[in-house]
Specification:
Blueprint (H helix, E strand, L loop, with lengths): L1 H26 L9 E7 L3 E12 L4 E13 L3 E8 L6 E3 L6 E4 L9 E7 L5 E4 L5 E2 L5 E2 L5 E2 L15 E2 L4 E3 L4 E3 L2 E4 L6 E2 L5 E2 L3 E2 L7 E4 L1 E3 L5 H36 L4
Antiparallel strand pairs: 1-4, 2-3, 5-20, 6-19, 7-8, 7-11, 7-15, 9-10, 12-13, 13-14, 15-18, 16-17
Helix pairs in contact: 1-2
Amino acid sequence: MLRGFYTAASGMITQQRQQEVLANNIANVNTPGYKADHTAVRAFPEMLLKEMGSKQIPITTHHANLPFQNPIGSLNTGVYVQETVPNFTQGDIRQTGITTDLALINGQFPDETGGIFFIVQNAAGELRYTTNGNFTVDGAGNLVTNQGYYVLDAAGNPVQTGGMEFTVTSNGILQTAAQNTQLGLGYVADVNQLVKEEENLFAGEAVVVPAEATFQIEQGALEQSNVDSLQTMTQMMESYRLFETNQRVLRAYDESMGKAVSEIGRIG
């Protein structure tokens, strides 16, 4: 009986976590470069049930009791969210006409596990990676993210634009009247090894983009979120129904336990 409580409760907790992930995806449906999260749900290890007993075997002077076990079957002990995994497929490209908006096209490889990202520097001075090219220029003329993090060049220095008048070539060279600067781009061999952080950033290890990699940077455009809003809303409704189902099972167990305490044990 108590095992049923735990199984139903684990199902409710799992669907609650699922709802949180899906709600966060919906909240970021308009966030440029956002990668939708997916939950990996796993079952707890199954328990093998056996019938245990003993049999009497007659011998010459007395009976001997020999233990035996008969397999009954396996019993599932509930589910849990093992991990949350980002989906790195590329979102649609939308034209904005804004000079500081940069779309990294084909930065992810559908047939492989690698991907290309912009390199930025967070508030702690650490390298982070993003596909959100919704940049701007700060008061000092540096190209920065909307959070104020520096966009780095190939040498690991902040990109200096000197203002809003600049162009970016398809291979990532930022051109101004004073100089040309190669934007910092990092290649991650296995994007599944990246750790997703807040503000649409990823932590991990990246190397120089290999020569055989094909990509394109389009100025005045943005990669949109890859969240499928219709599919996500459908998943949210399914998750809510599963939560309610586990809730009803839990209530049924609770009523059964109540009867066991108040009625079955009553002395007439």
